[in-house]
Amino acid sequence: MPVTKAVIPAAGLGTRFLPATKAVPKEMLPVVDRPAIEYVVEEAARAGLRDVLLVTSRSKKAVEDHFDRDAELELALERKGDGARLARVRGSAELAEVHSVRQGAPRGLGHAVLCGAPHVGDEPFAVLLGDDLIDERDPLLEEMLAVQERFGGSVIALMEVPEEVVSLYGVATVDPAPVAAGGRYETVRIRDLVEKPPADEAPSNLAIIGRYVLAPKVFEVLRRTPPGRGGEIQLTDALRELAQAADEVGEPVHGVVFTGRRYDTGDRVDYLKAVIRLACERADLGPEIYPWLEEYVANGGPKADN
């Protein structure tokens, strides 16, 4: 079946950004002048997945409201003749058909994905994590959808990471020879997965990043997956079972090894790097901010202000 739906987990507490996230959902923190979650929904829509389910919590009403129409604000902008901002405000509500469901308790990513089962039904679907922003010039999700259409089963986005940070990720064991899929990125067959292993026990440096295209069978596995690392239901544990049973059930698990531009907005330093980089590349902001940044660095950066 063609993939038409995307699930975006957005129920996390955002503790790494406290106190900013005490009252503001981390997904609504601005990346330049748009909330991070909007980039993710736009990515899904750009890949043809215009049926989007947000998995939120009781403190995330602002995330749901962002993708709704705001008649009062639109009227005020219209009366001011501010057509550019009016178009941007309306654009967020027109990106996709956005639904939401609440995750009653923080029971892990696997449980968040399972909350999407009634909406997804018996269809393959995509999962996009809001902390990972993929540059719009790098068609990772489109490639993953093509791999899933060709081979069936599930597809996971992988990325080579330095050994010193491998323990922060789920890590894949893959076949030595890549699959000849003829795409932009290398496709590999995944045989096993482990969540956040010690660096000296990691089977590879191929880390899972926040993009998945999953067979509906994952729901069946998640329902019986016990809490794992951190006392939470780990999506990696369920995908590990699928990968190990792939030959038996005829549903392979593949990985697409991404080599493009990824911004980790769940980390404070990487979040700031993403804001600076994207601002510098904007036609309306870059000509002003990039020369200032060059001058700031040339003058010694923070040392010059001491």
Automatic annotation (TrEMBL):
InterPro entries: GalU_uridylyltTrfase_bac/arc, NTP_transferase_dom, Nucleotide-diphossugar_trans. GO terms for molecular function: UTP:glucose-1-phosphate uridylyltransferase activity. The keyword Transferase applies. Residues 5-274 form the Nucleotidyl transferase domain. Transmembrane segments: none annotated. Keywords: Nucleotidyltransferase, Transferase. GO terms for biological process: UDP-alpha-D-glucose metabolic process. It holds the Pfam family NTP_transferase. It catalyses: alpha-D-glucose 1-phosphate + UTP + H(+) = UDP-alpha-D-glucose + diphosphate. Its EC number is 2.7.7.9. Belongs to the UDPGP type 2 family. NCBIfam families: galU. This is UTP--glucose-1-phosphate uridylyltransferase. It comes from Pseudofrankia inefficax (strain DSM 45817 / CECT 9037 / DDB 130130 / EuI1c) (Frankia inefficax).
